[in-house]
TrEMBL record:
UniProt keyword list: Membrane, Transmembrane, Transmembrane helix, Transport
Protein name: Equilibrative nucleoside transporter 3
InterPro entries, sorted: Eqnu_transpt (IPR002259)
Protein's UniProt keywords contain GTP-binding: no
Membrane topology designation: Multi-pass membrane protein
GO MF annotations in UniProt: nucleoside transmembrane transporter activity
Segments passing through the bilayer: 45-73, 93-118, 130-148, 154-184, 196-216, 222-242, 282-303, 309-328, 348-370, 382-404
Predominant cellular place of this UniProt entry's protein: membrane
Gene Ontology CC terms: plasma membrane
Family named by the database record: Belongs to the SLC29A/ENT transporter (TC 2.A.57) family.
Subcellular location(s) of the protein: Membrane
Length: 420
């Protein structure tokens, strides 16, 4: 009797053990289906490169409008009978008008893109595609305008340029916000890759402007054609990269990894460079700033602080750069109404570098930190909102250019009247 009971118990234990093993095997199979295969280093680098290219192309039109100063101001906006050494009103206010037009529509479209259903009929990838088509058309029209002689139609060309800047940067703001939203569901290092690409864009554009101006120094029309042709090529490559991202192994892995995390959560619950030097602005301002902003973004990739107070304190402390900028006062001597207390161009270069590297680090670190601790459902929206805040800050900064430029010109005219 005891033996039979023991045999029955043994058989029951064996059955339960086999059932448990089958259950564990089934669970293992289910997990293996959900858990994707780790991508190799090559596929990760491909995804990094694609995202980096998109980042470079985002600010390409804006950087061209700002960096190609010699082409736009000294060549295309110059009247036929204008004397050398003189400027007209379009040349004086070109940067101010472009700055405002670039950011005005960009700010509005970014807000609409984030907060209204107007753009929600299209997916993020479709909105990125539309923005790239607009950028390609911008490059083609710019090449045509570079070929055409507009010296007799300066006013028309000025209006067309401002309108193009107004329109294309509206699309580019959508591209920027949608790219942040599209990449936010991936690892934060991919998100920072967008910032690195955007900061590199300024370096690339400045080098292209310097190269084309040096090659065609006596014919700025050819320089403009070459510049916009290279910009078109970069835009086309970035467009192809944006459409290829969903097909990469690394992207599929990151998306599947997010799904696995969701399932597990449910189960668990003047001395060095002359101010009049043609490359002073290009080297000391544009190239220097963009290069060190890039270094700041790279630094954020190496070490990103998770302390909210750190970003608050460093952002507020950067206000000190404003009074320091007044000490350099690089306005022409004839238009200065504040004396230049620091006359070293080397110190000014260091000042720009510090301004840029702090900007790049804080921007990249904050953008990476914002969506990291949020639910996956709102990660994309939070990153797009961060893009909107960035555009708002740039817009407010550029708004100051108008009154400052006006005061400078007003002081210059008053000085001239006193001399007369």
């Amino acid at each position: 009797m005891i033996k039979s009971d023991l045999c029955e118990n043994d058989s029951l234990l064996e059955n339960e053990t086999s059932i448990c093993k089958e259950g564990l095997n089934n669970e293992t199979k289910n997990v293996s289906i959900i858990d994707p295969q780790q991508p190799n280093q090559r596929s990760r680098l491909i995804l990094y490169f694609f995202i980096y290219l998109i980042g470079v192309s985002i600010l390409l039109p804006y950087n061209i409008f700002i960096s190609a100063y010699q082409y736009f101001v000294q060549h295309k906006l110059k009247f036929v009978d204008q004397k050398d050494g003189t400027t007209n009103v379009y040349q004086d206010y070109y940067i101010s008008y472009v700055g405002i037009s670039v950011q005005a529509l960009a700010l509005v479209t970014a807000a609409l893109n984030n907060f209204t259903s107007l753009f929600n009929r299209f997916t993020l990838l479709q909105r990125i595609k539309i923005s790239y088509i607009a950028a390609i058309l911008f490059c083609l029209i710019s090449i045509i305008l570079a070929i055409v002689d507009t010296s007799n139609y300066v006013f028309c060309y000025f209006i067309m340029t401002i309108f193009m800047a107004f329109l294309i940067n509206g699309f580019q703001s959508i591209l920027q916000c949608c790219t942040f939203g599209y990449i936010a569901t991936l690892d934060k290092t991919y998100l920072n890759c967008v910032n690195i690409g955007m900061n590199t864009s300024g370096v690339v554009t400045t080098l292209l402007v310097m190269l084309t101006s040096a090659v065609f120094e006596k014919n700025l029309s050819y320089a403009g054609i070459l510049l916009f042709s290279i910009a078109l090529l970069i835009t086309l490559i970035a467009f192809a990269a944006s459409q290829s991202i969903p097909n990469t192994m690394a992207y599929k892995y990151e998306i599947n990894k997010t799904k696995v995390i969701k399932v597990s959560q449910k189960i668990d619950n003047e001395e060095n460079v002359s101010l009049h030097h043609p490359y002073f602005k290009a080297l000391v301002v544009f190239l220097n700033f963009n290069l060190f902003a890039l270094l700041g973004s790279l630094l954020a990739s190496v070490y990103c602080s998770q302390n909210d107070n750190f970003y608050l304190i460093t952002t507020i402390s950067r206000i000190l750069f404003l009074p320091l900028a007044l000490l350099f006062n690089l306005s022409p001597k004839e238009t200065r109404f504040i004396p230049r207390l620091i006359k070293s161009d080397l110190m000014f270069g260091i000042f720009v570098s510090l301004l840029a590297i702090s900007n790049g680090y804080i921007l990249s670190g904050a953008v990476m930190m914002i969506p990291e601790n949020l639910p996956n459902k709102i990660k994309g929206s939070s990153a797009m909102l961060a893009g909107l805040v960035i555009l708002s800050a740039i817009f407010l900064g550029l708004c100051l250019a108008f009154p400052l430029n006006y005061l400078s010109l007003l002081e210059n005219s008053n000085s001239a009247n006193l001399i007369i």
